[in-house]
């Protein structure tokens, strides 16, 4: 089973906040003022260094005329890390089968990854 990389998850959220903030033409200071947070907190959240609790994410999203879900990564966004005890080739083959890839393509994938 794959697990979520906490760092990548919050970096993605921070990046989404930056994008939305810039779309609205706000500075970090202006967003801080709208949320009652410090500019330092906004900087750290945007960089993925500070993990905002749900209530702060809600406050930020309201200030940016968005919802908290707007900042969440999509399922296939690369936030997953492969557990070390599962060989990469097994993960690739499992994913290929799950994505309903044709048997011919799976055979080609097997040929490629088994050579890894």
Description:
The protein is mainly alpha-helical and 116 residues long. The chain folds into two domains: 3-71, 434 Repressor (Amino-terminal Domain) (Orthogonal Bundle); 84-114, no CATH class. It is 58% helix and 3% strand. It contains six helices and two strands. It has helices spanning 6-23, 28-35, 39-46, 54-63, 88-98, 103-114, and strands at residues 3-4, 80-81. It has a two-stranded antiparallel sheet with strand order 1-2. Helix 2 crosses helix 3 and helix 5 packs antiparallel against helix 6 (103-114).
The coarse silhouette is elongated
The largest beta-sheet arranges its strands as 1-2
Using only CA atoms, what is the Rg? 19 Å
| H-E order | EHHHHEHH
Number of structural units classed as domains: 2
How much β-strand is present in the residues?
under 5%
Q: What do we call the CATH topology of the largest domain?
A: 434 Repressor (Amino-terminal Domain)
Poorly predicted segments = none
Measured distance between first and last alpha carbons: 20 Å
Number of DSSP strands? 2
Indicate the structural class: mainly alpha
CATH class of the largest domain: Mainly Alpha
Helix % is: 55-70%
* Biggest sheet architecture: 2 strands, antiparallel
What's the oligomerization state?
single chain
Integer average pLDDT: 83
- The assigned CATH architecture of the largest domain is Orthogonal Bundle
Count the DSSP helices.
6
Going by CATH, the homologous superfamily of the largest domain would be: lambda repressor-like DNA-binding domains
Keywords: DNA-binding
Domain HTH cro/C1-type: 17-71
InterPro entries: Cro/C1-type_HTH (IPR001387), Lambda_DNA-bd_dom_sf (IPR010982)
Protein name: Helix-turn-helix domain-containing protein
